[in-house]
């Protein structure tokens, strides 16, 4: 979109060459006006993202009381917090859990979203709106609040899910008590919340695939699997990759579900970066170390962001 | 669940060409069955929340009853919630924060998007990319330095602190949506306006805003839902009940240490979720347009 | 606040001389006497009536002293109170009177107004303070905050006497009757007997509901058991005392044994889960103040009628009961220090303390040992007198204990908030580590905490 927007301008300027004089003045004033118009945005981007990011890096080098730099044993002064994190089992556990959490959840969301979008696309257009409306509900409720509902459904003594399982003679599941179940629960809630978003994105993409392509494929005698493999997937590849990468970022940085559902327990086995940073930085009032923990998200997010950005620009080029 | 259905479904669709009608019917059946299953799973938690909110404490704590049924529905939880002054306070706080943030966001992003989409100036391309990158920076990455900054400004425990930081969540994406919409407006329109001697502000207000109205509504809904549901910043920056917005207020104040208030918690959570749900019910198409803006525009 | 002062001054100038004289001579101790607003942040009580009485007492005091008292309640759910304390310490502004849990007065003592004058006067009237409160509240010989009545709780055993008799063969009512004497078998109420009872109850399908997560209920009971074995993880100078610590190993083995007799998901229980376990009738024993009973009385009265308090079981080094105190403290940056101290003193006096305990169904434990004879604990029921043994009384031979004592507060607070003691057990029982591996882990964690200091 960036390319799109800026390319528009030369055309506009070129078209008005008949009145060069006025337009030149206009152009001189134009950049001033444009700058003023983007100034609030600049303030937000620089003041509330750029500056805090730099300040966060600075913070992470301080000691607990923020009276000086944090000293390290084998890393240079200022990197002591990172050194302590490298030495801590809990921290590595958090890294690994965040990765499992984000990758599993995003994969499931993408699969379920794709499947549902496909199913929605299959049924007559008349009914689609109704189904789409119902299926999007999890995405509409603020996740912190719907997680409260899940929490209550997972309650050890009163679990309504276990009640249903009991009907089928399945033993009660310790949803939040056993580490793997607790991780699964966090993932289930995240998938429940996020799958509708994928569904709606894929549905939009499916609708943009030209019908003629399918007709052509049908004439060639392609089975539905082949149509999916050779028509639908290639046409949607870009949206799929952008959605997945974007969701990876959001899921990786998720906080509210873990906070409400498990608070990191049992014994820190469901902590992800955000909840651990909160625990260390704000609850145990070790702000510098908390800042150091959340900075670890950065490289992973940067890789995702790079690919998303590349996808977006490539799409733009294709469209033009 | 649906994922496993997917694996079963695909070989099922695999038929020889010719029995096209049978294949169609089969596909339709699969579609409806998976949609019904998905709907049950997707709607079970909110429905269960609603059921719980309509039960009395004694009924909730009675293990011998079927948790999915209500024996004697009661509105006492809703009465307790809505009669609770602190809950009303949460609601007002949320309304103040959300309104201010939405207005602020829309002003900032419409102005900036217009400038970025239609006026070339030094660094505009870099800035447009930068805005998009900011959107990819999650709130959990920066809440600790922001905590220090907001604290330094003396805005911890204040709705103004939230109004100050929420735009980081809303402005980048709204600007991005608006750039997309503005860019899709035919260039002939503004050329004509320029030749007629319209000023930039006239051009923006008389031409671009009306034409891009669907985009503006979509962006407004986005800004509204995001600031209504924001969780990380208020958890970190607001600790007194007095200035809490709804989400964090319900999570931290209604969940009482060791007593049964599940009916009230669920009533509170559902009431807090109501505004976005209402907006969604009436403006679903704009809502979806906002969501998919990234996919269809770009 | 300043607005208030100005209007008041105007009123005075406008000739309300009589009122002014009254205001100045009012017994609002050494305060400037011109009112103002006193902002209080108390712990959001788990017994619903517990907040009402604080509001009432503050209003009474405010009327008598012509101070407007603004009362807020801050929950400990989701560590909201810790967040509040840290945020206020960070921004150097906030409430004038604030409730601080267990380790916070010591951790924040540099920012707190010393309370020696208040404590001196109170101690003169009411005698000694329970040892754990003194240990936590007194830093470097100075009281950093006053041990509170409202919110301070003990965690002795709240048993279902019917289930205990039926499945474990222990008659809790006979052992610990509702009078000041030890019944038959009271001396045998040890952790050994406790573990055996836990195993029998688990076999009978009514396991003990003891949380093993990171919340206070879990950390407190595990800490009490460790202390009753003389098992400490860190000494008073901040050195980890894990290696070759026979007492610690013995306590850990006992904890491992007990936790194998608990429900499967206790590792994720929060402070409410054990209450739900009792109220649902699925559990024969929990360690909790009477709030669980109070809810049961409302929602499941047939369960409440079968509840009976017993002191904590004894270990080789004594009978220790988990103690979760709150403290009333005043920030050194508060502008209402004299008034704040006046209110705290008022709330701590016996009549006011008794009213707090009464409205909270006996939940609140005053810090002064002389106040362990409030009538409420003998009369509350049904069953009448079930809470007789809830407070610490001389015949029980019991003392209050704090998890991670005697470690220095700045380290203990982190170990406590992280639940290092329950995690140690969880690593062995749930994570399948050996005792040595788990001990090695906890030692590393303690070193990390020390280094970050």
Automatic annotation (TrEMBL), chain A:
Domain (ABC transmembrane type-1): residue spans on this chain: 95-308
Regions crossing the membrane: 33-58, 91-112, 133-154, 184-205, 235-257, 293-312
Gene Ontology terms describing biological process: transmembrane transport
UniProt cross-references to InterPro entries, sorted A to Z: MetI-like, MetI-like_sf
GO CC terms, sorted: plasma membrane
Pfam family, one: BPD_transp_1
Gene3D superfamilies in UniProt: MetI-like (1.10.3720.10)
Membrane topology qualifier: Multi-pass membrane protein
Keywords: Cell membrane, Membrane, Transmembrane, Transmembrane helix, Transport
Subcellular location: Cell membrane
Family to which the UniProt record says this protein belongs: Belongs to the binding-protein-dependent transport system permease family.
Protein name: ABC transmembrane type-1 domain-containing protein
Classification of source organism: Bacteria, Pseudomonadati, Pseudomonadota, Alphaproteobacteria, Acetobacterales
From TrEMBL, chain B:
Keyword Lipid metabolism: no
Pfam families: BPD_transp_1
Domain of life according to the entry: Bacteria
Gene Ontology biological process terms, A to Z: transmembrane transport
Membrane-crossing segments per the record: 26-48, 86-114, 126-147, 159-183, 204-231, 261-283
Annotated GO CC locations: plasma membrane
Gene3D superfamilies recorded: MetI-like
Name this protein carries in UniProt: ABC transporter permease
Automatic annotation (TrEMBL), chain C:
Pfam families tied to this protein: SBP_bac_8 (PF13416)
PANTHER family: ABC TRANSPORTER SUBSTRATE-BINDING PROTEIN, ARABINOSE-BINDING PROTEIN-RELATED
Coiled coil start-end: none
Protein localization: Periplasm
InterPro entries reported for this sequence: Bact_solute-bd_prot1 (IPR050490), SBP (IPR006059), TAT_signal (IPR006311)
Keywords: Signal
Highest taxon of source: Bacteria
TM ranges: none
Annotated protein name in UniProt: ABC transporter substrate-binding protein
Membership in a protein family: Belongs to the bacterial solute-binding protein 1 family.
Signal peptide: 1-31
